[in-house]
# Entry
Amino acid sequence: MKQVKRREIVRAGTTVEQMVRAIADMIVTGALVPGERLDEISLASRFDVSRTPVREALRELGAMGLVGREPNRSAVVTNVTGAYLHSMFEAMAELEAICARLAAERMTVDERRALELEHHASLRLVHARAAEDYAAYNTEFHTQLYRGAHNDHIFELVTQTRARLAPFRRAQFRLPGRLSISFEEHDVIVAAILQADAQAASQAAYSHVATVSDASIVFAAP
# Structure
């Protein structure tokens, strides 16, 4: 993974979700390096929590492929290779293409309108270079596509895959120009959905995730 200047784990709150996000972001950006031990007691002290939520956070990080653990041993940061990351993004691109195609066919008038309004509203985040806020909006944008597909099984599959890629998808917004590029790619997806053009929506969503994959690969190991 890409190496950056090392820094201490900050207290991001007391919830498991907050700890997972904080630790995952540090792993992806190289503040925590492959092979480094993640001691439960030390983490509990740094986040000012008991060891129980720390264990749960480490389990979730393990499910995301960012942490490995052997019985009776401390968890360690794993080595996420570029090849494995690419394979996950390849699956994600296919799933998102399906969702966009179905959304173009099945979204209600109200859903299309909400998608359009929120998309245009996100432009202010791009202009403000508000990477964290845009990352949060980006998650909501894609969730709207997943729900717009109106297929519960596909929704489950795509959200599970997204959860594993979430740290990398957030990290890409640290790169120069990614906010505006993301907005422009969203614009193509939204336009296709508003026109009920299923093929164009599918192609735009696939290309969008492929671009995200290329941007995120910088955070993986060779």
